[in-house]
Structure formats: structure tokens, C-alpha cells
């Protein structure tokens, strides 16, 4: 999506983005353009396991491409599907 057509540098842009992870697709990447030097905030609103989730520990991590520690993902959430 070309965000430059939607706003100027002084405007705020909110883009809805979603993903579904599974045994086949184990990661998702939120891409921004390389030449985009603006500050970005990424808000995660909801994380949940589906009924098809396997009975194992699930970890959601984020990794910033401009991080002070490149290659070091930050764990946000762990989830384990249990039947009570």
C-alpha cells in the first residue's frame, strides 16, 4: 500500500493489518518501505488461538529491523491451549 498518497509527514495514518499463523505459515511480516524514514508504531489488539491449535506452547514475538540488537526477537505473549 502506498501510504505517501494518503498523508503528508505531519498526518497520522492508521492501517489495519491482520494475519493468521498456522503450522504451515509460522511467521508474518509487517513491511514498510525501505526509504520510509518516519517513526512507526505497531499496535497489537488481539491474539488468540483457534480451535485447531496444537497442544503446545505458542510464542508471539516481534523483531524490529532497526533494533539496537538486530536478530533478537522480543517475546510478547505465550499461549497454551488447554481443555478444562
TrEMBL record:
Q: Which domain of life is it from?
A: Eukaryota
Instruction: Tell me any Pfam family this protein matches.
Output: Nucleoplasmin
Nucleoplasmin core domain mapped to chain residues = 16-64
Protein name per its UniProtKB record = Nucleoplasmin core domain-containing protein
